[in-house]
Amino acid sequence: MRAYDIILKKRNGEILTKDEIEYMIMGYVDGNIPDYQMAAFLMAIFFKHLNNEERANLTEIMAKSGDMLNLSKIEGKKVDKHSTGGVGDKTTLVVAPIVASLGIPVAKMSGRALGHTGGTIDKLESIPGFRTSLTLDEFFKNVNKYKIAVVGQTANLAPADKKIYALRDATATVDEVSLIASSIMSKKLAGGADAFVLDVKVGSGAFMKDIDSAKELATAMVEIAKSHKKEAVAVLTNMDEPLGTFAGNSLEVLEAINTLKGNGDKKFVELCLTLSAWMCYLAGKDSYEKCHKLAYDSLKHGNALEKFKEFVIAQGGDKNVIENPEKVLPISNKYIEFKAKNDGYISKINTEKVGIACNYLGAGRKKKEDNIDHSVGLEFFKKIGDKVSKGETIVKLYISENSAAEIALELLDEAYIISDEETKKLNIILDIVK
């Protein structure tokens, strides 16, 4: 078998066998296939694509290139939630305790912020003392005892994906559905869950900018899961505006706690209840409708809040963050405001630019090694469809002495479009793929 022949075969649009895909992927991981041949292989896939069987094989090979987590020591059916990334997306901080409060195990490995999207692990590390690194024994023990644990991904989870993604990033082959779907699902399969709820973001702040491409990605991921005898549901959600009221690490933890206390943004709550209900449904709790009611009651009656407190304490975090989040969380007391330059209605938001603006304040990172500032971020006072008056605050920027505040203001000025005509407010849930 030769790399040249496999590249030529895919370049000509032919279907690759599992052995051929494995030869390319593992040969590259082992250092036997050079960058230039793997780059050619990826470009051939970019233009000729993969069918369902090829996607399933690629996903399995990448998943098995490193550690395969065995969650059998955890009692019950394990359902994982994955988001394709967005601005202000703190759903795990609300969804996980809702689901755990209903007796369903949440054994979650999450990532860090990269690019214009935030990371759950960075947000949790805003809580003083919170440990995102647990031993496997601690991880299993916490899930069995409290029904919830959230930790950072292990270094050896799908290493083939990590190496190939770096090359995709440098060779303009990132945005191809087969490669995106197999990248995401290889890490999900390696994580060991029994079923998956996939939150696929759509819009200006998402990787998939339009509903058709998002639906194609969602369908690909659901099909990959099914091919590996795993259940999956994809929820397509709107990222044409930031999610909720805040973006930034401590600020998003604050919002999550306020939401668990019953004071959440309406659309954010709708999304959290939808995702929670699908997780409960896949866990076999009851019908989707009854699961939605159970999730709603957990939030309404404070059960999810109590579970969040239990979760924070179990992983070493300061329990006082529940009662006094503003005092416990590192939130900057310095701020500036982005204000409307004229009267009108917010008609459009470039959410990606909003996320980049947040990063310029210090809330995100360009490279995985970069440090972040947990105290900075954005507070949103106006969304699409809202009326604004000249001089009215649209966004409040929490800043530090290291924030590039002027650049952030310029980006927000470019991101927000104010028009004379009234604009319809956005729906948060766009479609369901299962």
UniProtKB/TrEMBL annotation:
GO terms for molecular function: 1,4-alpha-oligoglucan phosphorylase activity; thymidine phosphorylase activity. It is an enzyme of class 2 (transferase). One of its GO terms (cellular component) is cytosol. Keywords: Glycosyltransferase, Transferase. The keyword Transcription does not apply. Its EC number is 2.4.2.2. The keyword Cell membrane does not apply. SMART domains: PYNP_C (SM00941). GO terms for biological process: pyrimidine nucleobase metabolic process; pyrimidine nucleoside metabolic process. Residues 345-419 form the Pyrimidine nucleoside phosphorylase C-terminal domain. It holds the Pfam family Glycos_transf_3. Homodimer. PANTHER family: THYMIDINE PHOSPHORYLASE. Belongs to the thymidine/pyrimidine-nucleoside phosphorylase family. This is Pyrimidine-nucleoside phosphorylase. It comes from Thermosipho melanesiensis (strain DSM 12029 / CIP 104789 / BI429).
